């Protein structure tokens, strides 16, 4: 659990009732379980009523238990190792089916992302990409798959797209050594945040580039470097992160760019179709009913 939440609990501890102190102790000692409990279940485990749990959240400065619940999950997700993630996930799946649990939660993440997205930041991100001298895209570990998806689709249309490959040490900065004012750097990072992405985003901002951050919230270390920050709800589906909401934001970015550059996109794709036909890239056999 993050030191911020621990500090909040410790600071409020002297003024808590006995029941609230039991809740505080349970959260501190069993955070990996508490983060996925309802207020009622947490009350049962701590030996207090559900209303006491709600008052506890308000005493800590949250609007209610749902906000505290989200804070616990966020804090937990940022510190768990891969082994701990699978242990927590297995406990959740034991109560419900895997398929139902994962798909339902993914749908909720997209809905929640849509409700909280900053439309002005989205428009700013689109303009930064459209007006960029060069577009750099970077993401590490699981986020690299998202970076590759962005690179593939933007490269179909724009000639100035550069994917920053997974690199170690100074190689990251070697990829970015030519970044300059007016360029766009799309930085993708989710907990546990990659230090290389954090440093690279800071480097790009220092060079005057417009950093478009795709991350999980304003407390993300790459958000402070961003000219436009797009927040997508992400959580651990198991040992792997759920990236459906970030991918939906990326799809929306690509759609908006395609709409703004419709003539250019159409021309580029028409040329590509001719090349694909010439070299027999796709199977175009007609499907006939039997």
Percent helix range: 55-70%
N→C terminal distance: 60 Å
Secondary structure category: alpha/beta
H/E element string?
HHHHHHHHHEHEHEHEEEEHH
Computed CA radius of gyration, to the nearest angstrom: 23 Å
Shape: elongated
> Mean pLDDT, rounded to whole units?
86
Low-confidence segments: none
What's the total number of strands?
A: 7
Largest sheet: 5 strands, parallel
The percent range for strand residues is 5-15%
Strand order of the largest sheet: 2-1-3-4-5
The number of helices is: 14
Topology:
Elements (H helix, E strand, L loop, with lengths): L2 H10 L5 H12 L1 H4 L4 H8 L3 H10 L5 H15 L2 H12 L4 H19 L2 H12 L4 E5 L3 H13 L5 E3 L7 H5 L8 E5 L6 H12 L3 E6 L12 E4 L3 E2 L4 E2 L1 H17 L1 H17 L12
Parallel strand pairs: 1-2, 1-3, 3-4, 4-5
Antiparallel strand pairs: 6-7
Helix pairs in contact: 2-4, 2-5, 4-5, 9-13, 10-13
Describe the protein in words.
There is one protein chain. The chain is of the alpha/beta class. It is built from 14 helices and seven strands. A five-stranded parallel sheet has the order 2-1-3-4-5. A two-stranded antiparallel sheet has the order 6-7. It is elongated.
Question: What features would you highlight for this structure?
Answer:
290 residues; alpha/beta; 5-stranded parallel sheet; two-stranded antiparallel sheet; 14 helices; 7 strands; 57% helix
């Amino acid at each position: 659990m993050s030191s911020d939440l621990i500090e909040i609990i410790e600071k409020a501890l002297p003024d808590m009732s006995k029941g609230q102190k039991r809740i505080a102790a349970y959260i501190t000692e069993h955070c990996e379980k508490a983060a996925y409990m309802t207020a009622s279940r947490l009350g049962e485990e701590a030996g207090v009523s559900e209303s006491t749990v709600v008052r506890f959240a308000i005493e800590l400065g949250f609007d209610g238990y749902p906000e505290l619940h989200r804070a616990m999950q966020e804090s937990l997700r940022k510190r768990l190792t891969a082994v701990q993630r699978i242990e927590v996930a297995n406990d959740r799946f034991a109560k419900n089916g895997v398929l139902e649990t994962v798909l339902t939660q993914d749908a909720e993440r997209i809905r929640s992302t849509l409700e909280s997205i900053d439309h002005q930041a989205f428009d700013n991100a689109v303009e930064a990409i459209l007006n960029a001298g060069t577009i750099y895209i970077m993401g590490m570990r699981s986020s690299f798959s998202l970076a590759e998806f962005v690179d593939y689709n933007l490269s179909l249309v724009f000639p100035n797209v550069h994917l920053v490959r997974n690199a170690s040490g100074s190689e990251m900065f070697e990829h970015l050594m030519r970044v300059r004012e007016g360029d766009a750097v799309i930085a993708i990072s989710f907990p546990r945040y990659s230090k290389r992405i954090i440093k690279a985003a800071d480097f790009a901002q220092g060079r005057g580039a417009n950093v478009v951050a795709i991350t999980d919230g304003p407390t993300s270390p790459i958000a402070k470097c961003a000219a436009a920050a797009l927040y997508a709800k992400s959580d651990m589906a198991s040992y792997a992160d759920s990236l459906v909401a970030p991918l939906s934001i990326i799809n929306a970015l690509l759609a908006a760019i395609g709409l703004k550059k419709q003539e250019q996109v159409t021309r580029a794709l028409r040329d590509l179709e001719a090349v694909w036909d010439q070299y027999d890239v796709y199977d175009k056999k007609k499907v006939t009913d039997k």
